Amino acid sequence: MTTTQILADRRAHIHEKGTAPFNIACEKQSVAGSVSQRACVFCGSRVVLYPIADALHVIHGPIGCAAYTWDIRGAWSSGPQLHRMSFSTDLQEKDVVFGGEKKLYQALVELIEHYRPKAAFIYSTCIVGLIGDDVEAICRRVSAETGVETIPVHSEGFKGSKKDGYTAACNALDQLVGTGDTTGISPLSINILGDFNIAGETWVIKDYYKKMGVDVVATITGDGRVDDIRRCHGAALNVVQCSGSMTQLAMKMKQEYGIPIIRVSYFGIEDMSKALYDVAEYLNDKTVMKNTQNLVRDEVSNLVPQLRKYKHDLQGKRAAVYTGGAFKALSMIRSLRTLGMKTVIAGSQTGNKQDYKRLQELSDEGTVILDDTNPLELAKFLEEKKADLLIGGVKERPIAYKLGLGFCDHNHERKIGLAGFEGMLNFAKEVHGTVTSPVWKLASLRDRLVDRHRLLDGDRSRNGNRFVEGGNAS
Fold it and tell me: Which residues form the Nitrogenase/oxidoreductase component domain (predicted)?
């Protein structure tokens, strides 16, 4: 059983498998003072909408909000690069007093005239919610005057956490869905929801579906295009990868257009194969199923022999996983098992009760499951469980390095594609490279030297701050 001391208000958010019946608290506001790893509402909406490459993205607020989320995803575009421009109204003290509506209107008119985007998303930040700017009215006026649909994103940061930002993003996207022509869309067609083309992963997945004989109408939002999103309601199936960010939009489309939903993961051999087979089974086409069988057979038979050399070195190593959504953590546990590793800690920022229940069922005895952890808590569990590897995002990286652990970036800032069969090979290479790096031997040496200096300092104080003769202090 864990010996790490836990804040009283955090105990319900932590579960160690095998010590008690499963009952973890989640989907609650972060505990004040716990320095949560969660981001704000604005950040949540921004990371979802950011990859729509031919839209204008304008942050109505102080410049810091724009700087904080500039180029926040490693989301690649096969064409336009407008999404990588982080425009801001740069609200100042005077704007807080007198309002920023005129400034927003002028900025939008100028930007739309210059860039002629397919659509514009306007993000409200904390200060805008406090001063009461009518962003919706400005958006309606600009839309009418320019002919470019200008969509408000109600993402004031103080309204909740990153997960509430997902809701704001889905509400904004819903204003585009259903406004385009669906003529010519194949009955063997899907939308990919919740993949953000990190390091080109959406292109890999689309290529798999192409080989299967399945058309992708829209990718929402990786390498996304406004016109594709407008007509995505004509697809036969919605395939949801990141359930936390996109389930709400998929549910709205199911209610309004009758489009069914399946939930998938594109990480790891097992989940990638299942994702392709699930689509083929739903579409119920013999040619598609045959193509899928051939594709999976060829990819797996090519991949497995390449993984053996990494598994030899990683066998028995211990890993910790902390992701944005808990569903991704499930894939990580399976992928680590493929490499011979054991997961001793698993957690997420935004998981729900069902996600954590599945995580607990998949985990080994003694695995610590964390909801919305904080840096100190996570660090203590890493030390207690003697982890060799931490898989997380940019905020978790310093924790791993300070503890002398290997680290694998599986968040939206990474530049290496980890989805698909080729992504599994990239994942194995990255995990192997960091876990077996000789630099961690130096970290151990550093700890021994620190302990030696502490011992020397103690002997000096006991001997009148004199150096100890004869090496008795060693």
Answer: 40-435
**What one-character DSSP code corresponds to residue 176?**
T
Q: Specify the amino acid at residue 225.
A: R
Q: For residues 447 and 440, what is the distance between their CA atoms, to the nearest angstrom?
A: 11
Domain stop point among 253, 275, 299? 299
| Amino acid at position 164, single letter | D
Residue 213 belongs to domain with CATH number? 3.40.50.12380
Q: Are residues 292 and 367 in the same domain?
A: no
Domain end, chosen from 174, 209, 238, is at 174
From first to last of its 474 residues, what are the pLDDT tens digits of the chain? 577 788 888 899 999 999 889 999 988 876 555 556 677 899 889 999 999 999 999 999 999 998 877 776 778 999 999 999 889 999 999 999 999 999 999 999 999 999 999 999 999 999 999 999 999 999 999 999 999 999 999 999 888 888 899 999 999 999 999 999 999 999 999 999 999 999 999 999 999 999 999 999 999 999 999 999 999 999 999 999 977 789 999 999 999 999 999 999 999 999 999 999 999 999 999 999 999 999 999 999 999 999 999 999 999 999 999 988 888 899 999 999 999 999 999 999 888 898 899 999 999 999 999 998 988 899 999 999 999 999 998 889 999 998 999 999 987 778 899 999 999 999 999 999 999 999 888 876 656 556 655 655 655 554 444 333 344 333
Name the residue among 121, 131, 130 with its Cα closest to residue 158. 130
Residues 48 and 165 in one domain: yes
Do 345 and 377 touch, CB atoms closer than 8 A? Answer: no
Q: Is residue 365 part of a domain?
A: yes
Which domain covers residue 355, as residue numbers? 8-28+307-437
d(CA 265, CA 327): 8
Please report whether residue 215 resides in a domain.
yes
